[in-house]
Design brief:
The chain has 244 residues and is α/β, with parallel strands linked by helices. Helices cover 33% and strands 17% of the residues. The chain has a single domain (6-238), classed as TIM Barrel. It binds zinc ion.
Length: 244
């Protein structure tokens, strides 16, 4: 059974100095090298939507998933041209209550403030063949909030994105990687088709499609490490929950 690496990116830009969570940055030149290398090896990068037949075992080819959490504007500016160059698609998980704003859910935590895509950027992102999913409405800790707010984060976010962009929203990404049997049941009830976590590992048919593991891409992911993460069980051995 072929394992499917689903790459988890955040910012695609130069990491700021003296801030927290800068490991989540991938330099644009590194991103280009990574996509170029995988393309040369015969791999095709796909959005979660396009990856589904592979995750269900209906198709088997050299594919990998490309995901971006939070909806940073730098994904549009720096990742989109590279994705187009290699004819890859990707899913960007948007926080529906923060479109066109900044990543204020990390305010006062010494994390770099970053612009997020606005509706015009997202429409262009979609027009270029890319995909979007929901990353909740407010980037909430889904395992720490009351039940009625939890429904709002999962249902309202989907409806809002569907109404704004006039497309079905079927892919969900758990903020901070937090999920529970209750949140998984709500994803199904809301008619999502997939869910991704921050658990490390490559995905396979035996995984719950609502709690898929991903391959962590950080500023330290050089080409040797990328190949280990994609082609070997390196990430599978590091399967654990980590909050991002
Ligand atoms: Zn996030």
């Amino acid at each position: 059974m072929r394992k499917i690496p689903i790459l988890m990116f955040h910012n695609i830009s130069s990491p700021p100095r003296g801030k927290r969570l800068t490991s989540l940055y991938t330099h644009p030149a590194s991103f280009h090298r990574q996509m170029s290398t995988l393309s040369h090896l015969g791999y095709k990068g796909l959005s979660l939507q396009e990856l589904q037949p592979y995750l269900r075992g209906e198709k088997s080819e050299k594919v990998f998933g490309i995901t971006f959490d939070d909806g940073y504007l730098d994904n549009y500016c720096n990742a989109l041209p590279v994705l187009k160059k290699f004819a890859f698609s990707a899913t960007c998980y948007l926080v529906s209550g923060f479109i066109g704003k900044q990543n204020d859910w990390t305010r006062n935590q010494n994390v770099q403030e970053c612009d997020l895509m606005d509706t015009i950027h997202v429409r262009k992102w979609l027009q270029e063949g890319m995909a979007i999913g929901s990353h909740s409405h407010t980037h909430a800790h889904l395992c720490q909030i009351p039940a009625e707010r939890l429904e709002n984060e999962i249902f309202h976010s989907k409806i809002l994105l569907e109404n704004t962009f006039q497309i079905p929203i079927e892919d969900f990404c758990f903020p901070y990687g937090e999920f529970s049997p209750q949140t998984l049941a709500l994803l199904k009830k809301a008619n999502y088709k997939t869910g991704v976590t921050t658990q490390r590992g490559r995905a396979s048919q035996t995984d719950d499609i609502f709690a898929l593991p991903r391959v962590h891409m950080t500023k330290r992911t050089n080409l040797a490490l990328l190949l280990m993460k994609v082609l070997t069980p390196y990430e599978d051995h590091r399967r654990r929950v980590s909050g991002l």
